[in-house]
Amino acid sequence: MILVIAAFVSMIDRSVMPPLVPVIAADFGSPVDGIGLSLTVYAISYAALQLGWATLAARFGRVRILLASTVIGGIANLATALAYDALTYNVTRGLAGAAFSATITTVLIYYGDSLPIRQRAVATANLAAAISLGLAAGTVGAGAIAQWWGWRWVYVAVAVATLLLIAGLVRLEEPAGAARERLLPSLRRLARNRWAIAILVLTVIEGALLIGVFNYLAVALQATGASVLVAGAATAAFGAAVVTVSQLMRLVLGRWSAWMLLLLAGLAIIAAYIAVAVRISLPTVLAAAILLGLAWALGHTTMQTWMTDAVADGRAIGMSFFSISLFVGASLGAGAGNLAAGTHRFELLFALTTVAA
Fold first, then answer.
1. Can you list the alpha helix ranges (DSSP code H) found in the chain?
2. CA–CA gap between residue 204 and residue 323 (Å, rounded)
3. Long-range contact list for 169-175, CB < 8 A, 24+ apart?
4. What are the backbone angles phi and psi of residue 320, rounded to the nearest 5°?
5. Which phi-psi region, left, alpha or beta, contains residue 182 (left: φ > 0; alpha: ψ -120 to 50)?
6. Per residue in 212-244, pLDDT tens?
7. Distance between CA 215 and CA 209 in Å, rounded?
8. Which phi and psi (to 5°) does residue 226 adopt?
9. According to the model, what pLDDT value does residue 118 have?
10. How buried is residue 339: exposed, middle or buried, by Cβ count under 10 Å (0-12/13-18/19+)?
């Protein structure tokens, strides 16, 4: 349970950011794209530190690294609450991304070390539910707190959540039979693993579509005059959809082919971005968020489970590259989104994203 809570908190840290971009920009007197850069910085730092955390986890143990990274994440959130301009905000958000980049990968490695593949599939579905709840709680909570008390209290709340998480993590035991992996041999095995490489390529695309560009749905909606609370609530439908679909997936796991799950995910992504490319409004953003949540639940959990099995001979390094690929894609998508925010060309962004999907 504590691993599920860790995933929940790490997703709150990421999901509070998109709705706050226009609010913080107005507070600092900065252009929207100056604060929107934090989404790209977060994604890049999240990707860049994956391999480092995985190497440390292989050497010192999964639990120690999870505990250390959570402590750093809490400190980064307190620092964010004290930021006084766009530069300090972006730097502290980058530090938070670097810290929480250890969480999901380490949880997946822990599951891979301690569960057989069928139980692992159920565990990753539960993990997807926790992630989606974190996404929903973060977007709604950020909107509510920012509108009623101010955006700085959002990051104070996240810091408090990390302190409570640390109290639970100190009681977590290291998984029995956890392998100590050496970096270079693991990298060589991964480079020769064509199945794993194929999954990583798909994951880059997924990250761009379902994280990077998705983050700008809230920003685009606020550009039409919607409040931060409304924008956060609308995009929180992503998390609600993931919760619902990931739990329903228990009924079809082992019955539906993986290609069918990915096909449905792809069609949902295309439909989502067509909706907002035609018109940006509360109904279309809400519909897009729901469809993208459906795609995440069907597609991401499928590839996540495949990857834990495909890199069984080097799971710590392999799963770190899975997260690297996801957030390399996220940084590319966020970079495109930030260009669109700076020029107010959101419809063009979503049209190009539809083509990519």
1. 2-15, 17-28, 32-48, 50-60, 62-81, 86-114, 117-148, 152-169, 183-191, 194-207, 216-223, 228-235, 237-248, 258-278, 282-295, 301-310, 315-343, 346-356
2. 9
3. 169/2, 169/6, 169/63, 169/66, 169/67, 169/70, 170/67, 171/2, 172/2, 172/3, 172/63, 172/66, 173/63, 174/61, 174/62, 174/63, 175/62, 175/110, 175/113, 175/114
4. -65, -40
5. beta
6. 899 899 999 998 898 888 988 898 898 888 878
7. 10
8. -70, 150
9. 65
10. middle
d(CA 54, CA 109): 9
CA angle 279, 280, 281 (to 5 degrees): 110
**pLDDT tens digit sequence for 18-68:** 889 999 999 999 998 899 999 989 989 988 888 788 778 877 888 889 999
Give, for 357, the enclosing helix (H) or strand (E): none
| pLDDT > 70: percent of the chain | 94
| Cβ atoms of residues 98 and 43 within 8 Å | no
Report the sign of the C-alpha dihedral through residues 338, 53, 238, 234, in that order: negative
Query: What single DSSP character describes residue 257?
Result: -
| Pairwise CA distance, residues 124 & 112, whole Å | 10
What is the DSSP secondary structure assignment for residue 116, as one 8-state letter? -
pTM above 0.85, yes or no: no
Closest by CA position to 277, among listed 349, 224, 205, 202: 349
CA proximity to 38, closest of 60, 19, 64, 55: 19
CA dihedral (39, 216, 328, 99) positive or negative: positive
